[in-house]
Design a protein that fits this description.
151 residues, mainly alpha, 6 helices, globular, single chain
Length: 151
Amino acid sequence: MVERKVDHSALRTNQAFIIGLLIIAFVLDARWLVAFMSAVMLIGAIFPKVALFKAVYWYILKPLKIARSDLRRDNPEPHLFAQSVGGTFLLVATVAFIANATVLGWALAWMVVALAALNLFAGICVGCLMYYWFNRLGLPGFKYARVESQK
């Protein structure tokens, strides 16, 4: 079997953008930015090669040596699943804003901030854990088992 690797610096860049932009959205009451973040996250999860914040990492931060690779033995699918969960939360937050349920919308956005921060600062990816639990339960679509993340 081919060893699969994931650049965790790209993941951390993605998480930092999610946290920063959602906090800015809250401070400025820029609900459109929550909708934009939902779209960016869902498109990036479905089409990883066009993920906006990872592109910033690959084409700007890494070439300028602002960030460097942190390749680890890992599966990309759990991270993409986690991103799709976050993007879905933000999509529901956007619907809540449209329905004038502002408190619900911001609560969902802050949940995404909290989970991204937990991942960025503590290395705990709740969406990844969900993916691996679903794999252990044998649910279709969750075909990769957990690997020990090593450099």
